[in-house]
Amino acid sequence: MKNSLEPSVPNKKIYLILVLGLLTAIGPFSIDMYLPAFPAIAKGLHTSVSQVMLSLSSFFIGISAGQLLYGPLLERFGRKKPLYLGLSIYLLASVGCVMVGSVQGLIALRLLQALGGCVGMVAARAMVRDLFEVKENAKIFSTLMLVVAVSPIVAPTLGGYVTAVLGWRYVFIILIYIALFILAGIYYLLPESKQPDPNFSLKPEPIIKNFYGIIRHPQFATYAFTGAVSNAGLYAYISGSPYVFMEIFKVSEKQYGWIFALIAMGLIGASQINNVLLKNYNNEQIINGALRCQCVVGLLLVVITLLGWDEVFLIIFLIFLFLSCQGFIFPNASALSLALFGHNAGSASALLGAIQMSIGAGASALVSLLHNHTPLPMTGVMATCTLTALVVLFRGSKRLIYKAAEKVVDEGKVEVISTL
């Protein structure tokens, strides 16, 4: 039985999904908006772009570790109190980013900003599982992606213009106002979807055992890692694209923002087409087909880079196709990962998010590590991610089929015994 707070009025449901979408988008928005400002930040803080890129890596680390912290808090104290705590930390860190005077300070503050902001991503996924039926989850996640996908359309474009006209510090001032707006939405529009559980232990040992029990589940492991490894290709693109487009192809900050926005439209379109496909196909079929297509596109990106055919419009077109596939993979993988964890949705959501961000951070760092003044590190890591995800899905699916067959055999034995 679902939570009694499940929205029954259509308008209320729309507002609820909007707030959940904004909570999910705060992390991506905090990443995408300052990407065009990398050269300006480097100049303002008297450092290099490669040093500024470390602030992106620290953000990924914070957003990965922070989600594991908030999972238990969301079980113990309900959904809204941890949201207030995390977003308050985010606000203070954003104020610090406005006033920061060194790249080392920016790296530390971005870590703190991520530790605060990631609560929105965990809570939003958990609340989808709290408030909606399991069969609706993939559709709700696709709808959330519509809100999330606005981030890479609006954020880099806005960030590029703000940096060019007002300076890079105003990027973080805008993030402060966005956080305040989200806090107002939580207070006025977001119901408490799970009552506090004082019996949920916050001691390390039971928390670790709880996470271990979740990750050992074959369905969670299969789809969590499939979605996370595939999604790491997106983080490889986010990490590598400022250098590829602004340094190699010499586009301006404003042009980069528009390129980023155009590519992100593939995510929006795919996530909404996903809702239509779910009427005739199941989640597993959609993931399988989209991942195979993404592998083909990823390999094409590597081939044209190696052959020196890396013309800017061709790169943009192929990355557009690559991320469009992600619009089908991500919502279905998330829904299947969380489907079995109604009573433990907060912890499962936290673990899912931590896996996604940890692998994404690794892909981002790998692009920087392999930097060779060509697009190959970015395109190579993107292709590696999607090929690895296909292997994970293939092996995990075989394991799920085997487990299902075992269950049928066991049930058959019980039926035979009961008739003796």
UniProtKB/TrEMBL annotation:
One GO CC annotation: plasma membrane
Family annotation (InterPro entries): Efflux_drug-R_Bcr/CmlA (IPR004812), MFS (IPR011701), MFS_dom (IPR020846), MFS_trans_sf (IPR036259)
Record protein name field: MFS transporter, DHA1 family, bicyclomycin/chloramphenicol resistance protein
Repeat found in the keyword field: no
Localization, UniProt: Cell membrane
Domain of life (superkingdom): Bacteria
PROSITE patterns hit by this protein: MFS
Family: Belongs to the major facilitator superfamily. Bcr/CmlA family.
Broad class of the protein's primary localization: membrane
Gene Ontology MF terms: xenobiotic transmembrane transporter activity
Originating organism: Hydrobacter penzbergensis
Membrane topology: Multi-pass membrane protein
Transmembrane segments: 12-31, 51-70, 82-101, 107-128, 140-162, 168-190, 220-238, 258-278, 290-309, 315-341, 348-370, 376-394
Pfam family, one: MFS_1
Keywords: Cell membrane, Membrane, Transmembrane, Transmembrane helix, Transport
Secretion signal span: none
Annotated Major facilitator superfamily (MFS) profile domain residues: 16-400
UniProt key word Cell membrane: yes
Biological process annotations from GO: xenobiotic detoxification by transmembrane export across the plasma membrane
